[in-house]
Amino acid sequence: MVDIFKALSDETRLRILAAIWDDEMCVCEIEKGLKLTQSNASRHLTTLKNAGILSYSKKAQWAYYRISDTFRTEHSVLWAYLQQKLKNIPAYLADGEECKKCREQNLCNNND
């Protein structure tokens, strides 16, 4: 439980969560959408993954992250609270829109 709250105590990690509520995202989409460097994005994604909040899959050379189904199930009250609070913060909504634009650009396939 401590690892979860430590992972959630960083604004960048909360921004990542808000950006990928409903769908998985490639690391390159997260980087561009949230204007993060590769090393910064990787560090935050690893923290969220190690806390059990995110899961990921590999497709070719790309890593795609999503909210862990196990996290959603085992911490349903916390998940509901995060959804309610984060979705009402204008900056996080703007991040989500920017990430959606990046997803629509199909960045991963453009980098082949």
TrEMBL record:
**PROSITE patterns, per the entry:** HTH_ARSR_2
Q: Does the keyword ATP-binding apply?
A: no
Query: Pfam families recorded for this chain?
Result: HTH_5
Which superkingdom heads the taxonomic lineage of this protein's source? Answer: Bacteria
**Signal sequence range:** none
Tell me one GO molecular function of this protein: DNA-binding transcription factor activity
Mind listing the UniProt keywords for this protein, alphabetically? DNA-binding, Transcription, Transcription regulation
What positions does the domain HTH arsR-type occupy? 1-97
Q: What InterPro entries does the database record attribute to this sequence?
A: ArsR-like_HTH (IPR011991), HTH_ArsR_DNA-bd_dom (IPR001845), HTH_MetalResp_TranReg (IPR051081), WH-like_DNA-bd_sf (IPR036388), WH_DNA-bd_sf (IPR036390)
> What PANTHER family has UniProt attached to this entry?
ARSENICAL RESISTANCE OPERON REPRESSOR (PTHR33154:SF18), TRANSCRIPTIONAL REGULATOR, ARSR FAMILY (PTHR33154)
Q: What is this protein called?
A: Transcriptional regulator, ArsR family
What species is this protein from?
A: Acetanaerobacterium elongatum
